[in-house]
Amino acid sequence: MGEWDEDPARVATRLTGRPAGRVRTVPGSPAEVLLDGGTPVMVKRGGGPRAVRAEVAGLRWLAQADAVRVPAVLGHDEHWMVTERVATGAPGPEAAVRFGRALAALHAAGAPHLGAPPPGGPEDAYIGNAPLRNAPGTDWPRWYAGHRVLPYVRAATDRGTLRPGEAVLFERVCERLPELAGPPEPPARLHGDLWNGNVLWGADDEVRLIDPAAHGGHRETDLAMLGLFGCPQLDRILAGYREVAPPADGWEQRVGLHQLFPLLVHVVLFGRSYADRALAVAREALAR
């Protein structure tokens, strides 16, 4: 049995030093495992080279901000990680406001530069199963175009998911980014993949974030991702955020620009079904 195919219970024992009982959920990644005494943990297999190192570094970097809560990392190696299991509950309005305030504090913790990976994390990381290049930058429009939009446009075009004529629309948006991007801001400490599936509403009425693609970037990117697939209590989250650090004027009109990045990642990972939405966002931006 190879390291990638190891039994999750055995992984949990090896990485935590505690005997593990049965796998409580259907085997796979992540799997829920009960440690001796009944403590549940999550055992996750990395999706590719450096994936575990990137995720562990990201979780620790987010935790160091002492703002948004994340599951504790209980052990890891190059292929596997073990984290605490979060008991989940219903999304509550008060928890949402607290989360919004904490997210603003996380962003304010900052990053050394645009594209900064978490300390100890690789420059070549992942967002989901797609590659994510954490190359440094100082000018957000140029950096965003070169490292968060055009690489995925090229990948989708090479695969035939986007047609060459469609790719030109995204190139035109990138050319106009300096006038569309809003005022410059210092690099924020981003979760980086903040769709609603990575927001865990705890049974203790506190929010935790999982599966980061953490890096230094523009804080509006995290806010835009929250709205991309319908996060519960989004209005309350944004209200809490605005209490601490209101976004720059006109940020609502820039949401689509920031959503281009995750939409194009979805085009690369999941195919043509996301292309129409990405193209609609590009056309809307060009019409401004």
Question: Your description of this structure?
Answer:
With 288 residues, the protein is of the alpha+beta class. It is 45% helix and 15% strand. The protein is built from nine helices and eleven strands. It has a five-stranded antiparallel beta sheet with strand order 1-2-3-5-4, sandwiched between helices. A two-stranded antiparallel ribbon has the order 6-7. Helix 3 (93-108) packs across helix 7 (234-244). The termini are far apart.
Q: In terms of topology, how is this protein built?
A:
Elements: H1 8-16, E1 20-23, E2 31-35, E3 40-45, H2 51-64, E4 73-76, E5 80-84, H3 93-108, E6 124-127, E7 130-133, H4 140-158, H5 164-180, E8 188-190, E9 199-201, E10 207-209, E11 215-217, H6 219-228, H7 234-244, H8 251-270, H9 275-287
Antiparallel strand pairs: 1-2, 2-3, 3-5, 4-5, 6-7, 8-11, 9-10
Q: Describe the largest sheet.
A: 5 strands, antiparallel
**Which outline best applies?**
globular
Q: What is the chain-wise order of helices and strands?
A: HEEEHEEHEEHHEEEEHHHH
Work out the radius of gyration: 19 Å
Report how far apart the termini are.
Answer: 57 Å
Report the helical percentage: 40-55%
Structural class: alpha+beta
User: Poorly predicted ranges (pLDDT <50, ≥5 residues)?
Assistant: none
- Strand runs, count: 11
Question: In DSSP terms, counting alpha (H) and pi (I) runs of 4 or more, how many helices?
Answer: 9
Q: What share of residues are in beta strands?
A: 15-25%
Strands ordered across the widest β-sheet: 1-2-3-5-4
Mean pLDDT equals 95
